[in-house]
Design goal:
heterodimer, A: about 160 residues, alpha+beta, about 20% helix, B: about 450 residues, Tetracycline Repressor, domain 2, 7-stranded antiparallel sheet, about 55% helix
Chain lengths: ~160, ~450
């Protein structure tokens, strides 16, 4: 089965986004949204979360259905500006909280260069649990794209529901 | 976050993200504009194609903001999530918020947010441990855990008075390298024991658990709170340090004479009962005096006694500025800790006094520290080169300015707490240099 690819303008948004609003579903079926840095590796949207802020990780383990909104013209400085929402199935990778997330570090550093300076042993002493982190890996299933950011207009929708891990 | 507060802040955001359930059970989020009208929010209808937005009692409206900081990352993080009912239809949809949560880093600093999130991290690790059938703990090398648990950098508070005592003894023509090394080892062991015991008893009394604004100069090492070291391990560590201190102390008493015993016993007891029950000296507003005595006269005079076999006025006078300045380290460090200390019944001087009185107290103590040096030189007890220690007056001034300006901002205060630590270190080192120069001048 041929699965549609992530539209290039949305790839551009993902590559530029310093923040996106990730919505997960908690154990009571209610939504919970947190701002996070989205990273795009060409197949998955990746995020990393400290165990300090691990409610979303617990929620994703209960229900993998998530939605990511890229909506802020300041936090998503892509030109020309547009907006997107990506629904997908997320999984939590937390088998190595201490080192596992380092694989997303190059993508993270590209957006938040100061991170590199905070990773020295002395710096990490200040907040050691902040550096115990899981990866959230989102397989995109459906993408809504509003070309000029105007969400009163019909979005272009890319169906990626055939995508499998 | 209170709903009213959240609604009042909403107009400060450029747009919102509306989140509703879609037909397949996914959250569907879409950006929209909005305005607050009489406690509810009017939302501009948004198009989501075939996934039509419907009325729901469980929608979310989220606003968020960051300020990009090129080459660094971003700052000014804030967001609000409102939960409530959405009614669609008409020229504007109506969102009736029922509850709000959120964070603004200008109201609650990120480090404090992290400290408040510790219980969540512990829950996650506990769940992961159950899931995997083995304990999952945060990782840190044994060396760094030791560094953190013992608060090694603070050992300057011991090194300075011991070297000052050695310098005073050398001024009086007494110096034994072997005894100096033993003295330093014993003094460091007492200090390390104190640091570890302090964490143990602050954890047991709950002080460290309710302190959400620790800095690298205050709030303890937090290794127990972070799950890096267990309470039992810390107890073992404290026992080892105190055992070393007692053994070294007894050896020194045997070598130097019984006159040292009482000073040594006082030092160990003050160190232990600083936070330990039943005395818990720091809870009674005596912490500052204990620290001043322990890291001032007791260490300087004790070191001097080991070298010379007697006590003298000069090392006592030399110990006073160092005692005052080490006391001021504790005193200033108590400023960011004062709310947690008060909640846990730790009635430090800073908890007991008003901010203005605390700052006046700081200035008065610093002035006395320098006056002791000046008067000591004028009356001929201290060699005149010890006046070199007055070079640190600007550092005391800067610390005072910082305390005054940032009394209520723990993280802005941090750099001034660092200056305050340096004030003790540099003044102590300059006093040592002054005494040693005095030997040269005398010859």
């Amino acid at each position: 089965m041929v699965v549609a690819e992530m539209p290039m303008p949305v790839v551009e948004l993902l590559n530029k986004a310093l923040v996106g609003e990730l919505t997960v579903i908690d154990r009571d079926g209610r939504f919970r949204t947190d701002p996070l840095i989205p990273l795009w590796d060409g197949r998955y949207i990746l995020m990393t979360s400290s165990i300090l802020f691990s409610r979303k990780l617990e929620d994703i383990k209960q229900n993998p259905k998530v939605s990511l909104s890229l909506s802020d013209p300041i936090g998503v400085p892509a030109q020309p500006f547009s907006r997107a929402t990506i629904q997908g199935d997320a999984r939590v990778i937390d088998d190595d909280l201490h080192q596992g997330w380092y694989r997303v570090l190059p993508l993270w550093e590209a957006k938040e260069p100061i991170i590199k300076t905070l990773l020295t042993p002395m710096q990490k002493l200040g907040l050691p649990l902040f550096w115990e982190r899981a990866i959230i890996e989102i397989l995109p299933k459906r993408v809504f794209w509003w070309p000029d950011g105007d969400t009163t207009r019909e979005p272009q929708i890319t169906d990626m529901r055939g995508a499998v891990r | 976050m209170k709903l009213g507060d959240a609604l009042a802040r909403l107009p400060g955001f450029s747009h919102a993200v509306l989140i509703v359930p879609d037909e397949q059970g996914y959250p569907l989020s879409v950006a929209t504009s909005f305005r607050v009208v009489d406690g509810s929010v009017e939302v501009t209808p948004a198009s989501t194609g075939p996934s039509v937005v419907r009325d729901t009692i469980d929608a979310r409206l989220v606003v968020s903001h960051i300020r990009p900081y090129p080459g660094v990352g971003y700052d000014q993080r804030r967001y609000i999530e409102l939960s409530g009912a959405l009614a669609v239809g008409g020229p504007a949809w109506r969102f009736d918020p029922k509850a709000a949560r959120g964070w603004d880093e200008q109201d609650l600093s990120f480090p404090e947010l992290c400290q408040r999130a510790l219980p969540q991290a512990r829950r996650y690790l506990a769940a992961l441990s159950t899931e995997r059938g083995r304990e999952v703990k945060p990782q840190m090398s044994a060396g760094w855990r030791f560094f953190l648990a013992t608060r090694l950098p603070f050992l300057t508070a011991t090194i300075v008075p011991v070297f000052l005592g050695l310098a005073a003894a050398a001024y009086d023509r007494h110096f034994s390298l072997g005894l100096a090394a033993l003295t330093l080892m014993g003094a460091l062991a007492v200090h390390l024991g104190l640091n570890v015991a302090n964490d143990i008893f602050d954890t047991m009394s709950g002080v460290d658990d309710v302190n959400f604004t620790p800095t690298k100069y205050s709030g303890g090492s937090r290794v127990i709170q972070y799950g890096l070291v267990t309470l039992r391990q810390m107890m073992g560590l404290a026992a080892v340090f105190y055992a070393v201190a007692v053994i070294v102390g007894l050896v020194l008493v045997v070598i130097s004479g019984l006159g040292l015993l009482w000073l040594g016993v006082a030092g160990v007891l003050i160190s232990y009962f600083y936070t330990a029950p039943p005395l818990r000296l720091v809870h009674r507003g005596l912490g500052e005096v204990c620290v001043a005595l322990g890291f001032g006269p007791i260490m300087v005079l004790g070191t001097y006694f080991v070298q010379t076999g007697h006590y003298a006025l000069r090392p006592l006078i030399l110990s006073i500025p160092v005692a005052i300045l080490v006391m001021l380290i504790l005193y200033a460090n108590e400023v960011p800790d004062r709310f947690a200390d008060a909640r846990a019944g730790k009635r430090t001087l800073v908890v007991r006094l008003s901010p203005a009185a605390v700052i006046r107290g700081y200035v008065a103590a610093a002035v006395v520290a320098y006056l002791v040096v000046v008067v000591g030189v004028v009356v001929g007890i201290l060699p005149w080169p010890t006046l070199i220690s007055l070079l640190t007056v600007p550092l005391a001034y800067q610390t005072w300015k910082g305390l005054t300006a940032h009394y209520d901002s723990p993280y802005q205060l941090m750099s001034y707490l660092g200056k305050n630590v340096n004030l003790h270190l540099y003044t102590g080192l300059l006093l040592i240099v002054g005494v040693l120069l005095g030997i040269l001048v005398r010859r």
